[in-house]
Write a structure and sequence with these properties.
Layout (H helix, E strand, L loop, with lengths): L1 H30 L11 H30 L3 E5 L4 E4 L4 E6 L2 E4 L6 E3 L4 E3 L10 E3 L7 E4 L3 E6 L2 E3 L1
Antiparallel strand pairs: 1-9, 2-8, 2-10, 3-7, 3-9, 4-8, 5-6, 5-7
């Protein structure tokens, strides 16, 4: 009788261990992170994707910077009505194509005439077809005596 009871105890113990193991495996499988639709992500995968994203963003930023530089490297024809002022920004280049204009300057100086090689001072006449450069953005520019057409490269405002 002891053998039967001993065998019965072994079967019960094995069943209990097997049951606990089965419940543990099922619990781990259910609670495990990640699914087919939402997989678990490894650090190396995440770093790889972030590196790709960084490369893409840097390329986009460079293309935008290059487009901005290209846009600034072209002259724009600006119409300035008589009596108005074209106030130039720092480094702005201007070429008077039509009309009569007077240079207005500040105490720091006028507009550099790169064609003639002199500084156009306050109140001097702007020469047609000469490249005028504004060295700093301190309110310098051209005052239209008549309607003007000015080729401008850089920042400016009409006032």
């Amino acid at each position: 009788m002891k053998k039967k009871s001993n065998m019965k105890n072994k079967i019960i113990a094995f069943s209990c261990v097997f049951g606990i193991a089965l419940v543990t495996i099922v619990s781990v499988a259910i609670a495990a992170p990640g699914t087919n639709n939402d997989p678990l992500v490894s650090l190396s995968y995440l770093e790889s994707r972030l590196s790709q994203l960084q490369t893409t963003l840097e390329a986009e930023i460079n293309s935008l910077s290059n487009a901005s530089i290209a846009a600034q490297s072209k002259f724009t024809v600006v119409s300035v009505p008589a009596g108005k002022k074209l106030i130039a920004g720092e480094g702005t280049e201007m070429i008077l194509r039509m009309g009569s204009a007077t240079v207005f300057a500040t105490a720091k100086g006028g507009l550099a005439n790169a064609t003639a090689g002199w500084d156009n001072e306050d109140g001097s006449a702007a020469q047609a077809n000469n490249l005028l450069i504004c060295p700093i953005a301190d309110g310098r520019g051209l005052k239209a005596n008549t309607d003007l057409l000015v080729m401008v490269k850089g920042d400016y405002t009409l006032n």
